[in-house]
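Give me structure tokens for this 86-residue protein.
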Amino acid sequence: GVVMQAEVEGQRLVVGDDGRVLGMEVRVAGERKTIRARRGIVLASGGFIHNREMVRNYAPELYDCAVPWGNIGDQGMGINMGIAAG
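Here you go.
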């Protein structure tokens, strides 16, 4: 029952006054859209090894790592969306 969509960039979670996640603002082919959540949102977006500030704050032992192993897209965007949603 899950609809998978490729080439969609999550921008932010849409949160109601009661704190519930109602959906997500996304960018698809340069166009901004809002997707309504019926039962939840899955933030499957990787880690944050290429976000130097997050590494310093959350994994300081890795900050001086000569070769940060991971995808260049591991910028912590999904983690930050979750943090922003509370």
